[in-house]
Amino acid sequence: MQPTIHSLDQLTLLGLSFYGDPFAVSGDWDVENEIGRLWQRLGHSLKRYPHLQPLANRTYEVHIYNPETEQKGHFEVFAGVLINDLDLAAPDLLIKVLPTARYACYTVQGEKIVTDWYAEIESGLGEIGYRRAGQYFFQVYDERFKGMEHLAESELDVYIPIQPLA
C-alpha cells in the first residue's frame, strides 16, 4: 500500500473510550467485540446530543498504544466526532486532542479492513523514508465505509503520525 502524506492541524474529538483487550469478549472483528460495543455506545450518545452529529459525515477511531500493548494486548480505543467548539462538549463524553502533525494516510479496502493490516503498514514506513512519530494512529470513517456487514464494498483511511528517517 502506498500512502499519501498530509500535514494536519490539531484535531479535537469528542467521544468515548475503551481500554483493555478489545477481543476479550468476542475474538473476532465484529460488532460484538469491545470496539464494536464502543461504537454502539457512541451511537446512543449521539442520539442524546443531536448537536454533535459528525461533521462532514466523518467519525474517528483512535488507537493509542503503551507498554502493555505488546505485553498483554491492552490499548486504548477512542471513538468520536470532530468538534470545532469545546462548548459543544457533554459531561458524559471525553475530549481527545490529536496534535498538529505530519501523517501517512493509507486507504484500507474490503475484507482487508478486518485483517492485521497495521503490521504491513508499520513495516513499510521505512521504505518511503519515514518512521512512526507517535504511539497512536487514527481511522476515518466516512460515506465510503458501508458497515461491518458490507465490508467488501467498504473502505476507510488510516492516518499514522510520521517523521523523516534521521
Number of strands: 9
Total of domains: 1
So, the CATH homologous superfamily? Regulatory factor, effector binding domain
Report how far apart the termini are. 23 Å
Percentage of residues in helical conformation: 10-25%
Query: From the coordinates shown, what is the CATH architecture?
Result: Alpha-Beta Barrel
What is the alpha-carbon Rg in Å?
A: 16 Å
Q: What proportion strand?
A: 35-45%
Mean pLDDT: 86
Which regions have little confidence, pLDDT < 50, spanning 5+ residues?
none
Overall outline: globular
Structural class: alpha+beta
The CATH C-level class name: Alpha Beta
Describe the structure concisely for a colleague:
This protein has helices spanning 34-48, 67-72, 117-124, and strands spanning 4-8, 11-20, 59-64, 75-82, 94-98, 101-109, 130-132, 136-141, 155-164.
Structure characterization notes:
By secondary structure, the protein is α+β, with helices and mostly antiparallel strands. It has one domain (4-164): Alpha-Beta Barrel (Multidrug-efflux Transporter 1 Regulator Bmrr, Chain A), CATH 3.20.80.10. 17% of the residues lie in helices and 37% in strands. It contains three helices and nine strands. Strands 1, 2, 3, 4, 5, 6, 7, 8 and 9 form a nine-stranded antiparallel sheet that branches. The protein starts with a strand and ends with a strand. The model has no long low-confidence stretch (mean pLDDT 86).
